[in-house]
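Regression check, zinc ion case 471:
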Amino acid sequence: MKTLITGGTVVSATGRTAADVLVDGETIAAVLAPGSTLLGHDLAAHVDRVVDATGKYVIPGGIDAHTHMELPFGGTAASDTFETGTRAAAWGGTTTIIDFAVQRTGERVMDGLAAWHEKAAGRCAVDYAFHQIVGGVDDDSLKAMEGLVAEGVTSYKLFMAYPGVFMSDDAQIVRAMQKAADLGLLTMMHAENGPAIDVLAAQLVEQGKTDPYFHGIARAWQLEEEATHRAIMLADLTNAPLYVVHVSAKQAVAQLASARDEGRNVFGETCPQYLYLSLEEQLGAPGFEGAKWVCSTPLRSRAEGHQDHMWRALRTNDLQMVSTDHCPFCMKGQKELGLGDFRAIPNGIGSVEHRMDLMYQGVVTGEITLERWVELTSTTPARMFGLHGRKGVIAPGADADVVVYDPAGHTTISAATHHMAMDHSAWEGFEVDGHVDVVMSRGEVLVDADGYHGRAGHGRYVARELSQYLV
Ligand code: URP
Ligand code: ZN
Ligand code: ZN
Ligand code: ZN
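Current build output:
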């Protein structure tokens, strides 16, 4: 099957150019001057399908490097399965997800990875890969880390929060980082001081402060800054490259920025919720409404200016990537578990379908360039997580994961029309300029003007190489 995408502007992390894209089978065959012919023959007449991208952007499919399909959390599980979550991703122009396989204290790492393969295999609409959560660092799990690279899992995540569930103490972190440095694994860190958070949260509940808003008060920015600093120093000590997930506090960004200025190999990711939503407006919504936005790290105060600072950090490269931390829970039967005690609200927001659109708004408002949009959402994720060459670029030989994006489109986000398995949207009523028109994954059209053509099982497991950012 050959497809020619004609008339569009191909956008990469480094520039934009008018070009036609020839797709042959699963890969990109050529990027050609507009209207190119082949030995005098009109190319369009010699392909099976022509996609007209006139007036539109042609970009590499999005890579969401932080999702939690079916994550067990707080006595329930994230409401998107791999099937529903990757279908929603496809609708939104994301053609690869990297989900977190889970090992909790007392479980074995390779059992956790096998369980994740079991959940995902044959069910995904788009390609998928895994990071490994190591939630119990001990001799067994350190030994098991030695097998991850061969499984195509070249990054793993530690938690400084959630004591008793996922948390590693400093001794465990040091041991895991030493091992990771040896193996070339990239250490990802949930950087919040969990024990201190638990003290503050218990005190708030004792004072009758049980509403979702107090989730944000208990998870104070000082505890994100402190943990980020500690993670940076432990990584420095052990020579382990470090990637801090879901950064939301401007003070944590400052820690990353100064570490980078000093030449340390550290990186940071933020998420759309930390760019747009706030402690006051969303977490502080009346009654129990704020539960929709209970996630960790929490939404931060707009009065303190965290949101503007995140945009700035994306421009200055103090932060390198935007992922969603997609971890959806319905209000009914799930978020409701925390009625009367915010500590029991399952943590997470669902956005996998909206990341490309939400980040494009930064182009519309002038916060970032078109090229930076592609870099933050696709090209850097590919390089950071060992997918480069195959994903994140429109170039000959790369997988034909291509999105045709219409800057003239317009939609309003709503739970009534989204495709995620959620009974509400964290983005209800949000107006989006721009529209994902066509989504192609390895040469197959998943979404076009007629709707959805994808299928569970099209998506394949992608074994990843080592991060390009190892030094
Ligand atoms: O609230 C969140 N982020 N839920 C998912 C688990 C995590 O900490 O990433
Ligand atoms: Zn986390
Ligand atoms: Zn997460
Ligand atoms: Zn069609």
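Comparison notes: The pocket of N-(aminocarbonyl)-beta-alanine (ligand 1) is lined by residues 68, 190, 246, 295-296, 325, 327, 347-348 (CB under 6 Å). The chain has two domains: 2-59+394-407+433-452, 61-384. No diff flagged against the previous build.
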